[in-house]
Amino acid sequence: MRFPSGSLVASLQNIRVKYFNYWMKNLIYLDYNCFQRGFDDLRQIRIQIEALACQNIFLQAEADDINLAWSFMHQDETLLCPFSQRKQEVLRLSRLCTIKIAPNTQIYQLANSFQQIQGLSSKDAVHVACADYIKANFFITCDDSLIKKANKLSLPMYIMNPIDYIRQEET
User: CA separation (Å) from 31 to 1, 3, 6?
Assistant: First the structure.
C-alpha cells in the first residue's frame, strides 16, 4: 500500500527503509594500511592495484553503499604519523567512517587472546579485536601475514586483501 508522499505514514516508512538499509550494508573494518596505501611505492604493480581497490572501497563508503569503522587504534596511529600530508588525508578519509569504536576492556581482552593464540602484534591484535567486537562482515588489510594469522582465529568475518574484496563484490 502506498501513502501520499507528505503523510506521516510515508515518512515513517521512509525512515524504516533507511534504517533497514543502514544495517543491511556490509560493515567493513579496514586495517590502518588501507588508509595509507595510496602513499606507498606505486611503482610496484601490487601496491598500485591495492591502492585502487582501497580507493574503490572509500568511494563505496562515500556513496553510502557500505559502512566503514574507525577505531581508537586508527586515531592513535594517525596522530603518531610523522607525515603531515598522509595524516591529513587519513583524517579526511576517517570522516567516511560511520561506526566509531572507543577503547574498552572487552576489546583489550580479545586483543590479548589474539596475541597469545596467533602471535599477532599488539596493533594488529587490537585492529582485529575491534573488527570482531563490532561484528564486522569484513576485515580488510594489505598485510598477507596478518591475513594468514587472523584467518586461523576462525572469526565470524571475512579477512582478506582489498583486491579480493573488490573481486568478490563484483561476482
Answer: 44, 44, 43
Backbone angles phi, psi at 8, to 5 degrees: -60, -40
Strand order in the sheet with 138-140: 97-101, 67-71, 27-30, 138-140, 158-160
- Say whether 41 sits in a helix, a strand or coil: coil
Q: How many CB atoms lie within 10 A of CB 117?
A: 12
- Residue in 120, 171, 162 with CA at minimum distance from that of residue 138: 162
Q: How far apart are alpha carbons 143 and 126 in whole angstroms?
A: 15
Q: What is the residue extent of each domain of the chain?
A: 29-170
Q: What is the pTM of this model?
A: 0.86
One of 3.30.450.80, 3.90.170.10, 1.20.1630.10, 3.40.50.1010 is the CATH number of 29-170, namely 3.40.50.1010
pLDDT, one tens digit per residue, over 123-166 is 999 999 999 999 999 999 999 999 999 999 999 999 999 999 99
Pairing of strands 67-71, 97-101: parallel
